[in-house]
Amino acid sequence: MTKLVEIKNLNVSYDEERVLENVALTISRNDFLGVIGPNGGGKTTLIKALLGLVKPERGEIIFHIPATKIGYLPQINQIDKRFPIKVIDVVRSGKTEKHPFNLFRKNQEETTHAENLLQEMGVLHLRNKAIGELSGGQMQRVFLCRSLMNNPELLILDEPDTFVDNHFESELYEKLRELNKRMAIVLVSHDVGTISYYVKTIACVNTHLHYHPSNIISTTQLASYNCPLQIITHGPIPHTVLSLHENDEQHGHNH
Ligand SMILES: Nc1ncnc2c1ncn2[C@@H]1O[C@H](COP(=O)(O)OP(=O)(O)OP(=O)(O)O)[C@@H](O)[C@H]1O
């Protein structure tokens, strides 16, 4: 399996507070890794590490691909609706190999690539709209196109389902499954139920990282990973499983 990024013995602290400790993780070609964990557990910090944005206090991060081959869809909660930029230009701005001031110079090849991505995501008809006119789901698709402009080998998404409706959420995950045929994906989500249906492996991050080599994970395993999450799912239809009370049997399901 071709390795894309390796994290070894990583410690990260902010102002003396240890956020990641002794973290090891290898991302390889065709991986589809779901990153879960409690609030403040260090998921975003792990993403920053994968993007080379945090300085390790200890350990190392080895990149086997250039930075331009890592696509990133940040957590987007809000955007100033008045921001004057067209959809097509948002997508084109994801092209980072060139000098940044080339951004708005017309380049037919890049425009065609951006249009192909918009087409793939089903939003080509919005190409000349102002970004602020779009719905949450449409905007998320456009930003996803932007993160694909460099044809990444690794795509990292931080809670892409935050402000989209349920319908778009499942569409998005289906798209990710298609994209996973041509790139590795790391997906951070609070929605353990849904992601466990799509990802191949799971990392539970709560200062320490526990790698789980499958997408099926039980509440008992989560507890042993010190990942106190309330919901989890597996099987063909996503559903929730409530965490157990102390004396419960193991198979308490809530469909
Ligand atoms: N730039 C920073 N400076 C200081 N502390 C930070 C900084 N970024 C994050 N932290 C702290 O580090 C801890 C981990 O934060 P991080 O955002 O990585 O967690 P998370 O798992 O992504 O959380 P959430 O699920 O709430 O998004 C938290 O306690 C947070 O307050």
From TrEMBL:
The keyword Electron transport does not apply. GO terms for molecular function: ATP binding; ATP hydrolysis activity. Residues 5-232 form the ABC transporter domain. Pfam families: ABC_tran. The keyword Nucleotide-binding applies. InterPro entries: AAA+_ATPase (IPR003593), ABC_transporter-like_ATP-bd (IPR003439), ABC_transporter-like_CS (IPR017871), Metal_Ion_Import_ABC (IPR050153), P-loop_NTPase (IPR027417). PROSITE patterns: ABC_TRANSPORTER_1, ABC_TRANSPORTER_2. It comes from the Bacteria. Keywords: ATP-binding, Nucleotide-binding, Transport. SMART domains: AAA. Signal peptide: none annotated. PANTHER family: METAL TRANSPORT SYSTEM ATP-BINDING PROTEIN TM_0124-RELATED. Belongs to the ABC transporter superfamily. This is Metal ABC transporter ATP-binding protein.
